[in-house]
Design a protein that fits this description.
single chain; mainly beta; Pnp Oxidase, Chain A; 7-stranded antiparallel β-sheet; two-stranded antiparallel ribbon; 1 helix; Phage_T4_Gp19; Phage tail protein; structural molecule activity; CHP02241
Length: 145
């Protein structure tokens, strides 16, 4: 019997904001970066066009999960933005079912930009889920797969 762990078996994501655990999420998307490039055509050089990097853009990160007791921490974080609290460093850890770490990403100077709560309909037997969207200024040096 093999004991090798499947690297693609990420089952949940742990969110930590300024060192405080916000609990587990079962969905995460938007971990992406794009480098904008300016093209420069040099006179006398017909072999290629210079591709000069100008800035790095980071997409917002969206985390989803069923509503839990940790939802109150999300609400507190969102309301703190309105009162001028500073941006927070965020850590997203990808964990296996046994809690062992697969990968992690650190996000610099993050703020919550959207929270969507559950649709509450007594006629539908659906799980009450929430979605948290976070904007950030890039990945930290410690973050990464």
């Amino acid at each position: 019997m093999t004991t090798t762990k499947d690297p693609a078996s990420s089952l949940f994501f742990r969110l930590t904001v300024s060192g405080v655990s916000f609990g587990a999420f079962n969905g995460c998307d938007g971990l992406a970066a794009q480098v904008d490039v300016e093209q420069f055509e040099e006179g006398g050089n017909n072999g290629f066009v210079w591709q000069l990097p100008t800035r790095v853009r980071h997409s917002n990160v969206r985390l989803t999960r069923p509503v839990t007791a940790d939802t109150a921490k999300v609400a507190t974080w969102i309301s703190s933005v309105a009162t001028g609290i500073e941006r927070a460093d965020v850590q997203i850890d990808v964990l296996r079912a046994d809690g062992s770490l697969i990968a992690s990403w650190g996000l610099r100077e993050a703020i919550p930009v959207t929270w969507t709560g559950p649709t509450l309909d007594p006629e539908q037997a659906a799980v009450a889920t929430e979605v948290l969207e976070i904007a950030h200024h890039g990945f930290t040096a410690s973050g990464g797969a």
